[in-house]
Amino acid sequence: MRAKYLVTGGAGYVGSVVAARLLAAGHEVTVLDDLSTGFREAVPAGAAFVRGRVQDAARWLDPSYAGVLHFAAFSQVGESVRHPEKYWENNLGGTLALLAAMRESGVRTLVFSSTAATYGEPVHTPITESDPTAPTSPYGASKLAVDHMITGEAAAHGLGAVSLRYFNVAGAHGEQGERHDPESHLIPLVLQVAQGRREFISVYGEDYPTPDGTCVRDYIHVADLAEAHLLALAAATPGEHLICNLGNGNGFSVREVIETARKVTGHPVPEVAAPRRDGDPAVLVASADTARARLGWRPARPDLAGIIADAWDFARRRTGERP
Predict the structure, then answer these.
(1) Could you give the residue numbers annotated as active site?
(2) What backbone phi and psi angles, to 5 degrees, belong to 13?
(3) Helix, coil or strand: residue 184
(4) What single-letter DSSP state applies at residue 190?
(5) What pTM was computed for the model?
(6) Residue 65 CB neighbour total at 10 angstroms
(7) CA separation (Å) from 88 to 84, 96, 166, 216, 246?
(8) pLDDT digits over 6-48, tens only?
(9) Who contacts 297 (Cβ-Cβ below 8 Å, separation ≥6)?
(10) Element (H, E) at 201
């Protein structure tokens, strides 16, 4: 059934892919984004675009909307340590204003872009939703605080909400792909090296208790991630706040990612050893059993080479190369 949705932060990486998937499913989409980190050209054709802050969502939200998908957050861990006030004001304060706007307009369905950073250093892997949450950065803490706020909103005011805690999102979907500025994620950084836009890739730590000594992470294709958001809309239940991890359940080391990128691109990717970064756990792998059981979600693109190949095609199109 056709419905109308507000996508906050829909000019960003994940938000733009979800907006495209909603349009492909026949829905009406309005993207709300202040373009502080997003890109106007990333907003998919067919979506209405409003330039504005999520704090002002009440200006545009009305009872014609069936729900909100909320991606409007700052997400740089290092920056959040240097400027925590920026993250509390936007990530927490922005969501507080959004929830008030939803309450006033009678819009009672929310899908929230959460993060594995809420867990901090894991006590075991794979990580489940019942594991302790102990974020190690203001970014992770702000996202966890939003989850607590949504839980209270659901209990007190009947909101139907699903928080999706992402692990490492990668890949591309058509014209939508990863283009953060500054970039901090491994796969796009490795591909910048392959393109000659960066001299080398830094490997932060070679002495972790993993098979090759480098950190292990769970990578999920952005198109699989987007599909989970559509399923979450259907699963949202009034008065309930459901939290689901999203990951493939498989881990790949930094060195495995680099070597796979070499094979996919056919280019050398020089690497340089660097000291460990504070707060980097050795292994972060998700259990997505809750998403499978409650949403009916199954990742269709779990292969690392395929994820990198899609990201590589997008990176070359952006720089005018032929994929």
Answers:
(1) 139
(2) -60, -65
(3) coil
(4) H
(5) 0.94
(6) 20
(7) 6, 11, 20, 29, 24
(8) 999 999 999 999 999 999 999 999 999 999 999 999 999 999 9
(9) 227, 228, 231, 244, 246, 288, 291
(10) strand 201-204
